[in-house]
Amino acid sequence: xxxxxxxxxxxxxxxxFPIPANVYAETVVSVKHYTDRLFSFRITRPQSLRF
Length: 51
Prior knowledge:
The chain has a domain at 20-50. It is mainly beta. Helix content is 0%, strand content 22%.
């Protein structure tokens, strides 16, 4: 399963609650399925995130 699709967010309403500090919405870049229950994925990350 190596396909990607864009989410249709044109018809969605804005959130009705405040977003807590230090919470980020990230994008899934790729997903690799090894089995039906085992997979890995890559996401974007903010530049401020350090390891």
